[in-house]
Amino acid sequence: MTDSIEYERMLRRRRDELTARDAELLATLASLGELRDANNDDEHDPDGAPVSGEWSRLAGIRRETQAELAATDAALGRLAAGTYGICVNCGRPIAPGRLEARPTAELCIVCAERTSRR
């Protein structure tokens, strides 16, 4: 079983990784944005993906990264508040195995299954 100190280390490492990924994505998107603004007609480039298509793909990945970062920050907040590992819906403990597999989990497996069926 993992203790709260280990969960915090794991979450902080993940937060650092996500922050670095977000910065990389932001820099790449800025570069692609400059190409898009230059009105380059890459839509017919047979050698690669169009700039606008690549920008859309990376923007989607960045949104997912930011969502995961927000979930990680929320989990760290629950740790600081002493509520980490307690289901925000029913108040029951979240199984350690679930937290090990998904350290940002805020719902126990029963509540998560109920939510996914809706």
TrEMBL record:
Record InterPro entries: Znf_DskA_TraR (IPR000962)
Cleaved signal peptide residues: none
Annotated keywords: Metal-binding, Zinc, Zinc-finger
Region of interest (Disordered), ranges: 35-54
Pfam families hit by this protein: zf-dskA_traR
Residue span(s) of domain Zinc finger DksA/TraR C4-type: 82-115
Zinc finger (dksA C4-type) residue numbers: 87-111
Name of this chain's protein: TraR/DksA C4-type zinc finger protein
Organism field: Gryllotalpicola daejeonensis
